[in-house]
Specification:
Radius of gyration: 17 Å
Distance between the termini: 22 Å
Shape: elongated
Largest sheet: none
Helix content: over 70%
Order of helices and strands: HHHHHHHH
Number of strands: 0
Number of helices: 8
Structural class: mainly alpha
Mean pLDDT: 91
Low-confidence stretches: 1-5
C-alpha cells in the first residue's frame, strides 16, 4: 500500500492566501468566544449559574469549572494547527450537548437551540478555509 506524501495532499487542494486569512480570522473569532465562555465558567460568574438553572443543569461550581477546563482545552487544541482537527471534533461534541440541552427544555429555536450549530458552522468553515488538508479530505 502506498501513501501520498503530505505535499501531494496540499497540491490536491490549492491554498489562496485569502482563504487562509479568512479562515484564521473566522477561527480566531470562534476561539475568542470559546475562551471567554470557558473563562466565565472557571470563576464561575453568577451569570453562568443564573443561566443554567432554567436549563436543569446543576449549579455547583465544580461542574462549571470542569466544563470551563474542557472548553478552554478544546479551544486551544483547535487554535493550534497540528491539533486543530481534534479540537474541532471535541468542540463539536460540546456544542452538540448544548443544542440537546436547549431542545430538551424547549428553548427558542433560532436564537438559543441553533446557536451551537451556528458556532459549529463557523468553527468548521474556519478550519476548512485555513487548512488545505481538510479541504482535500472533504473533496
Amino acid at each position: 500500500m502506498t501513501t501520498m506524501p503530505h505535499t501531494a495532499t496540499a497540491e490536491a487542494a490549492p491554498t489562496s492566501s485569502g482563504f487562509v486569512w479568512t479562515g484564521r480570522a473566522l477561527s480566531g473569532l470562534v476561539v475568542l468566544f470559546l475562551l471567554f465562555d470557558g473563562a466565565i465558567k472557571l470563576v464561575p460568574l453568577q451569570v453562568v449559574i443564573d443561566t443554567v438553572v432554567p436549563l436543569g443543569w446543576p449549579t455547583d461550581p465544580v461542574t462549571w469549572r470542569a466544563l470551563g477546563v474542557v472548553l478552554i482545552a478544546s479551544a486551544l487544541l483547535y487554535a493550534y494547527p497540528r491539533t486543530a482537527f481534534l479540537g474541532a471534533i471535541l468542540i463539536t461534541a460540546y456544542l452538540g450537548g448544548a443544542v440537546a440541552t436547549h431542545v430538551r427544555v424547549g428553548s427558542p429555536l433560532f436564537s438559543h437551540t441553533l446557536f451551537g450549530v451556528y458556532v459549529g458552522i463557523a468553527l468548521w468553515a474556519g478550519l476548512w478555509l485555513r487548512d488545505p488538508r481538510i479541504r482535500a479530505l472533504l473533496r
